Amino acid sequence: MNKQTYEKLAYMTIKEKILSGTYRIGDHISESALAAELTISRTPVRRALEVLEADGLIRFERNRGAVVTTSVLTPAQFVQMLEMVEVLCLQTVDKIKKHYASFEPSENIRLTTELKAAGEKGDYSAYNSGLGAWLHQLLTFADNPYVLETLRKIVQDFQVKAKNDLKMLPLLLADRTVTAFHELIEELQAHRYEEAKNSIQKLINEFIILTFR
């Protein structure tokens, strides 16, 4: 295996140990022990830990090295993410209402078509990526880089910290989401802003209800 393959192996191994609960919050991750377990040098383990630090799963502490800072994303935390996405989307609608001539839906229409195709294939990874891209495109109309940065962090946390069963959840609402996105685009084009905000709130509520079923 080449160097990048060793780094990926170390990354996936450590991440799985964190998400499965083998490594718990506050646990120290021994570079030497993990390198011995995987029969690789410490260098790719160190590189993997640096990526995991950027992901927010570990931090480096003086005299302790790598320490687990968080683990699997809980349903309650996922709902908090949904609530923040709702706030960002509603703020964006208000911004579009204020400067309605700036809304150009062609990219969101294209992304909706791609999202529908990913949903029909049942590929939750591609679907979730498409969902993130759709939301990012909508939030560009807020014309606020901090809005986009907040969304980026939410998407990253979901991709990194959610277990597969939680990652599957958006796919269960794929048809409903695509329909809601078509409706939302039409409402924004027609300047029916309160209806657009209601559509956003209804869709988020459906996600929240499904999360706790």
In short:
The chain is mainly alpha-helical and 213 residues long.
Question: How is this structure best described in words?
Answer:
Keywords: DNA-binding, Transcription, Transcription regulation. It comes from Listeria grayi DSM 20601. This protein is mainly alpha-helical. Helix content is 73%, strand content 5%. It contains 11 helices and 3 strands; from the N terminus they run αβααββαααααααα. It has helices at residues 3-20, 31-38, 42-55, 75-98, 106-121, 124-139, 145-161, 164-167, 169-172, 174-189, 193-211, and strands at residues 28-29, 58-61, 65-68. A 3-stranded antiparallel beta sheet has the order 1-3-2. Helix 1 packs across helix 3 (42-55) and helix 6 (124-139) runs antiparallel to helix 7. The model has no long low-confidence stretch (mean pLDDT 92).
Radius of gyration: 20 Å
Would you tell me the overall average pLDDT? 92
Number of helices: 11
CATH superfamily of the largest domain, called what? GntR ligand-binding domain-like
Order of helices and strands: HEHHEEHHHHHHHH
Portion in helices: over 70%
Number-wise, the strands total 3
Given this structure, which CATH class of the largest domain is correct?
A: Mainly Alpha
Share of β-strand residues? under 5%
What name does the CATH topology of the largest domain carry? Four Helix Bundle (Hemerythrin (Met), subunit A)
Keywords: DNA-binding, Transcription, Transcription regulation
Domain HTH gntR-type: 4-71
GO molecular function: DNA binding; DNA-binding transcription factor activity
Protein name: Transcriptional regulator, GntR family
